[in-house]
Amino acid sequence: MTSIVRFAPSPTGRIHIGNARTAILNWLMASKTGGQFVLRYDDTDTARSTQEFADGIATDLDWLGIKPHRVEWQSRRFGRYDEVADKLRAEGRLYPCYETADELDRKRKRQEARKQPPIYDRAALKLTEEDRAKLEAGGKKPHWRFKLDGRVVEWNDQIRGPQHIDTRSLSDPVLVREDGSYLYTLPSVIDDIDFAVTHVIRGEDHVVNTAVQIEITQALGARAPTYAHHSLLTGADGKGLSKRLGSLSIGSMREGGLEPMAVVSHAALLGTSGNIHPCADYAELVEGFDLGKLSRAPARFDETELLHLNAKLLHQLPWDAVKDRLPGDSEAFWLAIRGNIEKLSDAATWRDVVKGHVTPVIALEDTDFIATARSLLPPEPWDGTTWKAWTEAVKAATDRKGKPLFMPLRMALTGLGHGPELAQLLPLIGRDKALERLF
Ligand code: GLU
Q1: Could you tell which of 39, 206, 213 is best to mutate to test the pocket of ligand 1, judged by most ligand atoms within 8 Å of the CB?
Q2: For residue 244, what pLDDT is reported?
Q3: Which of 15, 155, 161, 417 has a Cα at 20 to 30 A from 393?
C-alpha cells in the first residue's frame, strides 16, 4: 500500500535530532511505499513563526536528504479552517465558552481540593442564548471548545500496539481562541483529511491528542489515518533532551562537520531492535524499515556514539562519495587516510603530513638509526611495495625489528606516533620530503 505522510514542524525554531528523527521515519515510510512526503509548516502561531525558521528547516531537511513532494503552510489555509469550524459550530460540536484563564484556574483548584479530576465542567453548555448575548454585549469574546463524545477511542498504533483512551477523562479541547486564531489541533486534522494523509508518524507526546483528533476526524465524517507514535529521545543521562537542544540542532551538526547519513542512520536505527550501523545512503535503511521494529522505550541519544558512527561511515566511504569535497586530493590519499579520521575535516591533518610541513620527531638515541634508514631510501618511482622493501633493508642493516624499527621512522616522517599505514603514506609523501624529514 502506498502512503501519504507528513512532517509538521512549527517554524518557531530550528529542528533538532528529535524532530529530525520524526522526519526521517516519515521519509522512510514514504520511500518504502513509493508514497509522498508532505512538509507542512504548522505556523498557526503567526507571532512566533518566521520565514527564516521555515527556510532553515527546509535547508536542514535537504541536508538530511529529504526532498518533500509537497509543501503546505497552515497560515495560508485559515479560510478553509473557518469553513470547517463553522460547520462544527452549526452542528453543536464546537461551542462558545467565556471563562477567563483565572476563572478556569479557580475551577481547577476547587476540583483539586475535592480530589476530582481537573476536567472542564462544560458550564458554558448551560448558557442560554440570552446569557451569551449579555456576555458579548459586555465585550466578552468566546473561545471555542470541541464537545467530545466521551467514549473510548481505540486505534491500532503501529508502534505502541492497541491503544484505548477514554475521552471522558479529558477536557473538551479549545480549538479556537478568543481572537479567532486556531490552536494546532483542528487545522492538523483538516489538513490530514484534505491532503489524504494515510499515516501520521509522530512523537508519543501526541498520544492524547490522537484520541481527540480521531474524534474530530470522525465528527467531520472522515476516516482516521493510521497512527504511529514513536518514543522520545533522551540524553545519555536518561533525561529529556530539551535543555541542550541548541547543540543538538541539525544546523549545528552540519556546521560541526558531521556526515548527513551518519545522522540519518543514527536517528533511523536508534531505539530499534536492529544494530546501529552506518548506511551510506537511504536504500539500505528503506529496505530494513519497519515501524514494528521501533521500541516503545525511550531511545537514548549519545553524541559520542553519533561521532563514532560518523567515523565508521567515513572509514568505508569510497573515493567517489567524497571526491567533490576533497578537491586537490587523490584516491590514494583518501584510501590511505579514511580509517584515521572521525570527521571529513580531519583529512586536513593528514594532508599536512603528506603535502605540508612536518616537524620530525627524532630521539637522540635514534639519530644513527635514522641516518642509516635515510641512506637506504630506495630511488623513485615509489608505490605500495616501497615501504616493505625499504624497511626490510633497514632491518637487515640495523638489526632492529618491530616497534623499535617502525616507530622512529613514523615519528620522523609524520611527526606523530599514530596514523595511517606508512606503506600507503610513504609514496604520497615522496622521496624529497622523506629525505628532508629523516634528518
Ligand atoms: N506541529 C506539531 C509538532 O511539532 C505537529 C504534530 C503532528 O505531527 O501532528 O509537534
Answers
A1: 206
A2: 65
A3: 417
Paired strand residues for 72: 40
- CB contact at 8 A, 54 and 163: no
Asked if 330 contacts 268 with a C-beta cutoff of 8 angstroms, the reply is no
Of all helices (H) and strands (E), which one includes residue 426? helix 422-437
pLDDT at 238: 80
Radius of gyration over every alpha carbon of the chain, rounded to an integer in angstroms: 31
Q: Give pLDDT tens digits for 208-245.
A: 999 999 999 999 999 999 999 999 999 888 887 766 66
Q: Are 360 and 372 in contact (CB under 8 A)?
A: no
Q: Going by DSSP bridges, is the β-strand pair 143-146/152-157 parallel, antiparallel, or unpaired? A: unpaired
Q: How far is CA 343 from CA 10, 116, 309, 338, in A?
A: 31, 56, 10, 9
Q: Are strands 70-73 and 94-97 parallel, antiparallel or unpaired?
A: unpaired
201 CA from centroid of ligand 1 (Å): 10
Task: Return the number of other C-beta atoms located less than 10 Å from residue 90's C-beta.
Answer: 9
CA distance 17 to 248: 6
With CA atoms as reference, report the closest residue to 279 among 217, 227, 287, 79: 287
Residue 239 is predicted with a pLDDT of 81
pLDDT in tens, 397-422: 999 999 999 999 999 999 999 999 99
Grid cell for residue 223: 476516516
E strands in 194-338: 199-203, 226-230, 233-234, 299-300
Residue 22 Cα: closest atom of ligand 1: 8
Ligand 1 atom 4 nearest Cα: 9
- Residue ranges, the chain, pLDDT below 50: none
| Alpha carbon separation from 43 to 55, 123, 157, 406 (Å, rounded) | 13, 31, 27, 62
Q: In the structure grid, which three cell numbers stand for residue 180, read together?
A: 479567532
Interstrand relation of 94-97 and 143-146 (parallel, antiparallel or unpaired): antiparallel
Which ligand 1 atom minimizes the distance to the CA of 213? 9
One-letter amino acid of 253? M
Residue 243: the pLDDT is 60
Q: How far is CA 84 from CA 91, 143, 188, 217, 308, in A?
A: 11, 16, 12, 11, 50
Query: How deeply is 414 buried, as exposed, middle or buried, from its count of CB atoms within 10 A (0-12, 13-18, 19+)?
Result: buried
pTM for the model stands at 0.92
Side-chain half-sphere CA neighbours of 287 within 13 A: 5
